[in-house]
Amino acid sequence: MPPRRFHFGRTEDAIHPDTMRAALSEFIATAIFVFAAEGSVLSLGKLYKDTSTAGGLVLVAIAHALALFVAVSVAFNVSGGHVNPAVTFGALVGGRISFLLALYYWIAQLLGAVAASLLLRITTGGMRPLGFSVGPGVGELNALLLEIVMTFGLVYTVYATAIDPKRGHLVTIAPLAIGFILGANILAGGPFDGAAMNPARAFGPALVGWRWRHHWIYWVGPFIGAGIAGVIYEFVVIPQEVPHTHQPLAPEDY
């Protein structure tokens, strides 16, 4: 098997129509996800004064899982359905995407999250997005480790179901599996740090709601977890005899 190749990206890729389509797809998919996910949190707060209940946690987890399932599905054939800067970073570490395309994805994902958060604030009559925060009695390092572990599981699932060359028919359930692991992780880590696993999901509400406390955790943790997952799956789990050809643009079978 030829070694994995890491590319900055070709100059012509910067203005290639496929690059623009992929970035637009990531923007729309991320906006769909953040609007539904953050909207579920705001609507729960509208219905109940105390949202820190087991039932509320389950409802939020289900909403996030369904929203991510749909968001990944609608973007899968165009951009690979990352919908998450950490997933893009994991693919970049594994040599599955060029740095130039990853940069486009990051910008599109962040803008999509901000647009969704702004729409939520407008449509709810000025309600500030809540975003994420570390729970009472939870240390910053504990929250950071939790984000690393949960994002590792998320990106590992992405690799196993959507990227692995031997995934076969498993690719048909990739969006569902990715949504399920997100929902499960929210049930596990939600009461501790909100369980972001997605810097864009954290950034949009933080910017629009202007809530920055402990915000660095939701960048550092997911990127570390995604990087570890990408390295382990790409260089340890994927059989070495499987051919791997670098694609500068997002292919349909990404």
UniProtKB/TrEMBL annotation:
MF terms in GO: water channel activity
Transmembrane regions: 27-45, 57-77, 97-120, 141-162, 168-188, 216-238
Alphabetized Pfam families for the sequence: MIP
Organism of derivation: Dioscorea zingiberensis
Top-level taxon in the UniProt lineage: Eukaryota
Protein name: Uncharacterized protein
Subcellular location: Vacuole membrane
Membrane topology summary: Multi-pass membrane protein
Signal peptide: none
Keywords: Membrane, Repeat, Transmembrane, Transmembrane helix, Transport, Vacuole
NCBIfam families on file: MIP
Family (UniProt): Belongs to the MIP/aquaporin (TC 1.A.8) family. TIP (TC 1.A.8.10) subfamily.
GO cellular component, one term: vacuolar membrane
InterPro entries in the record: Aquaporin-like, Aquaporin_transptr, MIP, MIP_CS
